[in-house]
Design brief:
The structure is a single chain. With 264 residues, the chain is α/β, with parallel strands linked by helices. It has one domain: Rossmann fold (3-Layer(aba) Sandwich), CATH 3.40.50.150. Helix content is 41%, strand content 16%. It has 11 helices and 7 strands. A 7-stranded mixed β-sheet has the order 3-2-1-4-5-7-6, with helices on both faces. α3 links the parallel β1 and β2. α6 packs across α7. The radius of gyration is 17 Å and the shape is globular. The termini are close together.
């Protein structure tokens, strides 16, 4: 089994208290799972976050990474508006000051390497291995796909890709997850925790997990026609989407259960 770090429950509890005070759209189960990944992914390299917004997921990742001495979290976000995931942000405004303030309030500023840039700009010259790739930026299919294509070549063996809002009404995260992870033998174990989709990079033995991935792809793939071309859900289409989504397993997972799932 993958080793679970000492005192993980207490570390996640402290990190969640800091995270809960930070504005954003990450639920508690999602945040705790993200912290679990930061602590437990059995791979070497950097934690990379694409899409920081006001710092909610950054605080969780950096709190855990700092505690266990895992190096700085690389946070990539231009902090510009408008944003597809939050239409309330005033065009032309910026979330950068709120982001930095959140890091300072949580005392994790020194544990974050800030890249105030679009992912395609940050990817230029990138050469570091990645152990956890957290994609929560542009939720269009083109945007999420570009984020995956730019940074997935640097995944270490055993690394995890996690994508936010894969079970919300955005085409990008769920389509990239189904097409690039669930249908790829480069990946092994995979699943959902609430709206976070995750898959472990296992290029050497991914075929051993093909049946489980295909089963999950069958359920998750039923969502794709409802969201094709960025269409908005309404009426009977929205009901159909929710019924299809209800068939996708997405409950919380304990550290022990997750460790068992990703063990070689």
């Amino acid at each position: 089994m993958v080793a679970i770090p000492h005192n993980l429950d207490a570390v996640l509890e402290k990190a969640w208290r800091l995270t809960d005070r930070t504005p954003g759209f990450l639920g508690e189960s999602e945040a705790r799972f993200l912290g679990l990944l930061a602590a437990c992914v059995p791979a070497h390299g950097t934690i990379v976050e694409i899409g920081s917004f006001k710092g909610k997921s950054t605080v969780m990742l950096a709190s855990v990474a700092t505690h266990y001495g895992l190096g700085p979290v690389v946070a990539i976000d231009p902090h510009t508006a408008p944003a597809v995931t939050d239409a309330k942000i005033v065009p032309g405004s910026s979330t950068f000051e709120e982001f930095v303030s959140a890091l300072r309030a949580a005392l994790v500023e020194e544990g974050v390497e800030i890249h105030r840039a679009y992912s395609r700009e940050a990817a230029k010259g990138w050469n570091r291995p990645i152990r956890l790739l957290w994609i929560d930026g542009d939720h269009t299919y083109q945007g999420a796909g570009e984020d995956f294509e730019l940074f997935s070549p640097y995944l270490s063996n055993g690394a995890v890709v996690a994508m936010h809002d894969a079970l919300h009404a955005y085409e990008g995260p769920i389509r990239v997850f189904v097409e690039n992870i669930l249908r790829s033998d480069n990946f092994g174990p995979a699943g959902f925790v609430q709206s976070v989709a995750w898959g472990q990079y296992r290029p050497n033995d991914g075929t051993a997990f093909r049946e489980d991935r295909e089963k999950l792809a069958g359920r998750a793939g039923r969502l794709l026609p409802f969201l094709a071309d960025g269409r908005r859900l309404s009426g009977l289409t929205k009901i159909g989407y929710k019924l299809a989504r209800a068939r996708v397993p997405r409950g919380p997972i304990s550290a022990a259960a997750w460790s068992s799932t990703v063990s070689p």
